[in-house]
Here is the input.
Amino acid sequence: MYAKTALPSARTLLNIALASMLFSGALAAQEHKVTVAMPVSAQGLDLTRATDARAFYTRLENAAWVACTRGNRVDLEPVADVKGCYEKALGGAVRSAKAPLVTQIYLSSHTIEQAATHGIEIPVQIAGR
Here is the structure.
């Protein structure tokens, strides 16, 4: 997963690589990994506000879903494990965002163990629970 470093309040564009897919070329006899990257913008959002963090998280969810389902164009094979791809993409995007409220929203539907799998840093107030 790749993201340009951005502060939650910077209102910049986060380029988050959301899914890995396999490309099967007509001329190639072997498989090649391709990363589908989808830009997800935090522009106009203050990620320290709950409503804005929720809006941003929804953008991340939608981008992860598109990358893992409809991102199969230009001769890309469909992802074999859509749910696994989605979870990896969403987890990586949340990790890259480094926004405590976005992490809290993620943890409302995921476990701390799942977050750790994706390298998401748990805010101190949550880790103490």
